[in-house]
Amino acid sequence: MGYIKDERPTTMMVGGSWNIGAYKYKANGLLDEYLEGLKEKKLIGSMCMGCGKVIVPPRLVCGRCHREMTERVVVSDKGTVTTFVVSPPIEKGKVKAMGMDAVELGLFTEGEVIMPAYVQFDGADCNLNLLILDADPKDVCVGMRVEAVWAENPVGALSDIEGVRPIPMECGGLDENQKKG
Amino acid sequence: MRKKSRHVAVVGCGQTKHSSRRRDVTLPEMVSQAVFAALEDAKIDPGEVDAFMVGNMQGFGGVAQPEQWIGDWIGASDKPVIRIATGGTTGGSVGQAAYYAAASGLYDVVVGTAWEKHSDSAEPGATTGLMHVGLANVFYALTKGFSLKNVMTASVAGAAAGVAVYQARFYMNRSGCKIEHLDAVAAKCRRNAAKNPYAHLQWPGCTPEDIAATELIAYPFRYGHVCPASDGASAIVVASEDFVRRRCEKPVWIKGLASYTDEENNLQAENWSGVGVLDPSEQMGCRVSAMKAYEMAGIKNPREEIDVAEIYQPFPSQELIFAERCGLFDPGTAWRAVESGDIEIEGKMPLDPSGGVNATNAIGSSALQRILEAALQVRGDAGEHQVPKKVKNAIATGWGGNTNYITFTVLGDEPGPRRW
Ligand SMILES: [Zn+2]
Questions:
Q1: Cβ–Cβ < 8 Å for B322, B88
Q2: Could you tell me the sign of the dihedral formed by the alpha carbons of B29, B405, B168, A108, in that order?
């Protein structure tokens, strides 16, 4: 069936390469406003005057009402875990990107369990993907209150937020936000 | 005044065996296998085909213009060939384009074919393919201080599972679905696949415990939950109503179809800006597509009127999420049908009797395979994985684009209520 050449029962591989570094893409620079905010430990978002949604980092056009998001607002650096995943203990050779090994580079330690999460900061209508730090996986849950862990000296880079950590509960157990509402 | 369209039916189905390395064939040889199988099934001479809608995941396999390579091999010389690429949904879009080409009155007989040949690249989801998906955005982020640690974190959460693992967590948190239900769905897919001679991951008698014994990737996904990267192709022949009446014995009518998208369902949009979809399991594009397609098909109560569903589900959580968005279950309840056995081949609402994408994922082809498998169910020709009841209506979905783009097709044993 079909046109299959019986005289060549298997195909052969021919090599080739492709320099993806040769490509240049145009960006709109909107992210720079956000990065300026990070320098001052502020999370800047854009607000849609059509539906009131606040999106962080800023977005050019609202994804729901297609209006230009011209307003800028600062959202809280405290928020809520909306979802998270727990990695198995990290092993050398298991976590790789761009040909490099995360353990070999010292980015994670052998046996470390990491928890990448979606975090909705108060005042934002979107999630940011951040690591939950300083927490035992047993104690982490959806709805958990967290705060941003900032780099000691923010430089205006995406990595200025190192992750989030649980907001320590004091006597009475309420954090600022819970007290408010 | 707008002219009415014509009714269109699927009149032929063909697919190749799927496996991880089809080293016995080149790309065009593989695609021709599916196309000629479909023509033979339709009892239509290649010379009678008016046009070809073709596609695979853009850039995958490293071939930028595969349609130019396969043209001669599928009998398309001197005929219109349109290449379509909508990411994971490609096959669904190919099938729908074939419908539109015939429904419009332009052509009587149209072949839709879609494929993937992952093994032609050393990396599944080849770099050349991912370039189309988001590489520019990632490059941009890397210039803005997105650190290597961020990159590694993303690869921990999503080595193979990407946004789907977060999506699963959202769904499980709001519905009460447990990891055991995902084990059960994946086991069902492998068991069903064992009854489908064309499927990839076939495991007769696979149990949820077998799946639970596989290694955890990132909770709640295990290796046993994840679809394979398959080589394979599928093809359908569609024909307009006049041609069908003259020539075809077992038409399966395309009664309703729609394709909608929502905002990006992963976290970062163009220029690394945020996305206003808080819950990636919301899949509003699927809800809207289903509602529109049901309206076109005259389906008022999908739970009663749909007899079987071929859902696009690379991950078991997605079978449940999308079955709900298709209106087959109340929101947050599909996992109960896992416990009751309702989603089994013999169940009340069989989901993916073919094993689905979870058992066979030749990406470009996967959403066309759903249409093809739904058509076989309506015809009663699905063989060992045929559901044991009269199938009047079946649905087929696709999920792709930027994890937000849906194709939705209703097929049935009679034409829809009216011409559009
Ligand atoms: Zn808006």
A1: no
A2: positive
pLDDT tens per residue, range B258-313: 999 988 777 788 888 999 999 999 999 999 999 999 999 999 999 999 999 999 99
Main-chain dihedrals φ then ψ at residue A51, nearest 5 degrees? -120, -5
Report the separation in Å between the CA atom of B263 and the middle of ligand 1, taken as the mean of its atom positions: 12
Residue B373 · residue B396 · CB < 8 Å: yes
The CATH number of whichever domain residue B105 belongs to comes to: 3.40.47.10
Q: Do A97 and B155 touch (CB under 8 A)?
A: yes
Q: How far is A15 from chain B (nearest CA, A)?
A: 10
Residue B205 resides in a domain: no
Is the peptide bond preceding residue B417 cis, with omega within 30 degrees of 0?
no
Our count of domains for chain B comes to 1
Chain segment B322-352, per-residue pLDDT in tens? 999 999 999 999 999 999 999 999 999 999 9
Q: Are B350 and B373 in contact (CB under 8 A)?
A: no
State which residues of chain B have pLDDT below 50: 159-160
Of A20, A57, A159, the CB nearest to B131: A20
Cα within 13 Å of Cα(A129), Cβ side? 28
CB contact under 8 A, B24 and A107: no
Q: Do B156 and A87 touch (CB under 8 A)?
A: yes
- Return the structure tokens found at A162: 């190192």
> Do A82 and A63 reside in the same domain of the chain?
no
Q: Look at the block and give the residue holding tokens 């290597």.
A: B148
Retrieve residue A121's tokens: 């900061």
* Token couple for B114: 């879609």
Close Cβ partners of A60 (under 8 Å, ≥ 6 residues apart): A28, A30, A46, A68, A69, B270, B271, B273
Number of structural domains, chain A?
Answer: 2
Amino acid of residue B198: Y
Distance from CA of B76 to the nearest CA of A (A): 13
Same-domain pairing of A135 and A86: yes
The boundaries of the domain holding residue B101 are 8-123+227-412
List strand residue ranges (DSSP E) for B298-392, in order: 308-310
The two structure tokens encoding residue B187: 């086991």
CA distance A59 to A79: 20
* Binding-face residues of B in 65-84 toward A, CB within 8 A: 73
Residue A69 belongs to domain spanning: 27-75
Asked if the structure places residue B165 within a domain, the reply is no
Highest mean pLDDT among A17-21, A123-127, B158-162: A123-127
